[in-house]
Design brief:
By secondary structure, the protein is α/β, with parallel strands linked by helices. The protein is built from 10 helices and 9 strands. Helices cover about 35% and strands about 15% of the residues. Bound molecules: nicotinamide-adenine-dinucleotide.
Length: about 260
Amino acid sequence: MGHELERACEWVDESRRIVVLTGAGISTESGIPDFRGPQGLWTKNPKAEKLSDIRYYMSDPEVRRLAWQQRLAHPAWQAKPNPGHLALVSLEESGRLHALVTQNIDGLHQVAGNSPEKVVEVHGTIHQVVCMSCDWRGPMQTTLERVRAGEEDPACRNCGGILKSATISFGQSLVPEVIDRAMRAAGQADLLLAVGTSLSVYPVANAVPLAKSAGARVVILNAEPTPMDSVADALLRGAIGEVLPKLVDKLGPRHLTSDKRLT
Ligand code: NAD
């Protein structure tokens, strides 16, 4: 085991309120591509970025038709949690996980077994659909059935408005209570562990310097450098599915409840 990994293991063991911040990189080993990694959707096809921009989505029916086709074929429907996700379940079972803040929309942390109350989905979820006019929400699969049945751009059955996955697109505001909850948790952390994120999407990337300035140690596990590497106390490179299990491997239970509850 490398020196950095050994040190990080000790810190994880010592910590009581770990906040984990995950990004698309934790799900690539489950077959869901990231955006900016070497095999990322945008690295390979920069035009795909348009489909994630709310301005094009709202103004261009062709973009919506393409987006619905992409949702139909989304790898999340078949994806299974990988050893990286399972390691975070072990971390929660050890009593050290304060919050699991995720930029991912795939729901794999909950499928793996992390408690829904611990998971803060700052960029929403692909498992639900929302109406952009009346805020109606419903399960994604029901709307996908309508697409399969031939509706290329299904409209809200309540009000005729534009439907979209309940994810935050570029140009769209975050849900204030959700991002506030994530930032509050980061400020309460004694260790912030960033996993599989390029830390280039704001404001959530600010969780890293915020935790650091509130006194937390910062560990970054990512295959590539990030703009926050200078803030980190330990930098771990390598495949998440290999490194993350090692980080939690020897943890005993720490039957301590967090003294600052995540609200
Ligand atoms: P990103 O694509 O910007 O960065 C992912 C990082 O993970 C890259 O730096 C890459 O080198 C690293 N990485 C990829 N696979 C890895 C592995 N197996 N081991 C170690 N490192 C690995 O992702 P981001 O920072 O999360 O930002 C992208 C945005 O796109 C997020 O806001 C998220 O909402 C969304 N997104 C989500 C999913 C998903 O839900 N699975 C997938 C793609 C994009």
